[in-house]
Specification:
3% strand; mainly alpha; single chain; two-stranded antiparallel sheet; 185 residues
C-alpha cells in the first residue's frame, strides 16, 4: 500500500480515543464519576499511548508524500465516515457485550457526543493533512528551484554525436584496421 493512503487509517486511534474521552466527559460530568479505565475501557490507556505517535506519523506521511509528489490528500466525506464507522461499531460491540439493548445504546448522550467529536476531528484532520501535503509540495519545489539556481555540482562536457574513427589492429602484429564511426543516441 502506498504510504499516502495510510494517512487516515493510522490517525483513527487518535480520533477514537478523543471521541471516547469527550463522550465520557459528557456522560459522567459529576465529580464522583469513574475514570474511563474503571468503566470497562481498559484498552483506552494503551491505545492513548499509541494514538499520538500514530497521529504524528500520519502528519509526517502527509508531508513526505507532498515532497515526493505522490500526494493523496484525504477528503472530508470518506474520512468522516471511516472515523464515525469505527467509533460507532466499537461502541455498539462494547455495550452489547455488557448486555445493553440497542435502543438504550442509541439514546445514550455519550455516543452522540463521541460521534460529533468524530466529525470535528475528521474536519480538523483533513485540513491539517491538506496543509502538510501542500507544505511538502512547496518544500520540494523550492528545493528544485534552489538547486536549479545553484546549478549541477558536476558539470560534464557534452558528448559528441559521432565518435571518431578508431584505428585498431586486428591482432597485435597486424596492420591497423579502421572501424566505422558510430552514432550515439
Amino acid at each position: 500500500m502506498r504510504p499516502a493512503r495510510l494517512l487516515i487509517p493510522i490517525a483513527v486511534p487518535f480520533s477514537f480515543v478523543l471521541g471516547h474521552l469527550a463522550g465520557f466527559a459528557v456522560a459522567h460530568d459529576d465529580s464522583s464519576a469513574k475514570q474511563p479505565v474503571e468503566a470497562g475501557h481498559e484498552y483506552l490507556a494503551s491505545l492513548g499511548r499509541l494514538a499520538i505517535p500514530l497521529l504524528v506519523a500520519s502528519m509526517f506521511l502527509a508531508l513526505w508524500s507532498g515532497m515526493r509528489g505522490r500526494a493523496v490528500a484525504p477528503r472530508y466525506g470518506p474520512t468522516a465516515s471511516q472515523l464515525v464507522g469505527v467509533f460507532v461499531s466499537v461502541e455498539l460491540v462494547e455495550h452489547l457485550a455488557l448486555g445493553w439493548s440497542v435502543t438504550h445504546i442509541l439514546t445514550e448522550p455519550a455516543l452522540w457526543v463521541g460521534v460529533l467529536t468524530q466529525f470535528v476531528v475528521a474536519a480538523a484532520l483533513v485540513v491539517v493533512l491538506h496543509l502538510l501535503v501542500r507544505v511538502g509540495e512547496l518544500l520540494a519545489s523550492r528545493g528544485r528551484r534552489a538547486w536549479a539556481l545553484v546549478g549541477s555540482p558536476v558539470t560534464r562536457a557534452p558528448r559528441p554525436l559521432v565518435h571518431a574513427i578508431e584505428l585498431t589492429p586486428i591482432s597485435r602484429r597486424g596492420p591497423p584496421l579502421g572501424r566505422l564511426a558510430r552514432v550515439c543516441s
